Amino acid sequence: MPKSTTMILSHGVRQIRTGWADGPEFVTQCPIRPGGSYTYRFTIQGQEGTLWWHAHSSWLRATVYGALIIHPKQGGSYPFQKPKRETAILLGEWWNADPIAVVRQATRTGAAPNVSDAYTINGQPGDLYNCSSKDTVIVPVDSGETNLLRVVNSALNQELFFKVANHKLTVVGADASYVKPFTTSVLMLGPGQTTDVLITADQPPARYYMAAEAYASAQGAPV
């Protein structure tokens, strides 16, 4: 981003008396100029789990984002079985174009932005795309162990379904709040939403796909 101004939004953090650290461009602060720096300082209160951060200038957030993980305070514990390990799963979108150019074209024409060319998991489109066949995201697990997946929908415009082949997911948190656990085989996350799930490797040892798919309805219906 050598020619772009930007700022960082801590998405979902309750900014209590620290509104200037929220990050919206020209709302709570001026953009950070190329080559400049800015230190965000705020205190997180009453939130545990998964949130995320992203650039908050035009569509730079299409590629500039990451997980924001809030662990229990020192000496505390999870209100569920302690996982063997934790993994952040960030679902995103990829355009074969400059995302800034995509949104500018939409602004000029008044049409909706062009849909993305691929969906990604932790920045990789998966082995169905030649460009990333050697860089597919792999999450190693040991047979029988229970892990915590912190799933974030980092996409700009799409609700996304997420699942792991042949496995159940126990939802234990959403948007940095614990929830009453329930079990499902598929998650549906809107843009910006996060969900924490426990998954137990209780199937025969093998490779199992993680998959994300866009929500779509009324395909082919007359307008």
Automatic annotation (TrEMBL):
InterPro entries membership: Cu-oxidase-like_N, Cu-oxidase_2nd, Cu-oxidase_fam, Cupredoxin, CuRO_2_LCC
EC number: 1.10.3.2
Coiled-coil region list: none
Keywords: Apoplast, Copper, Lignin degradation, Oxidoreductase, Repeat, Secreted
A GO cellular-component term linked to this record: apoplast
Subcellular location: Secreted, Extracellular space, Apoplast
UniProt xrefs under PANTHER family: LACCASE-5 (PTHR11709:SF431), MULTI-COPPER OXIDASE (PTHR11709)
Family designation: Belongs to the multicopper oxidase family.
The protein's name in its UniProt record: laccase
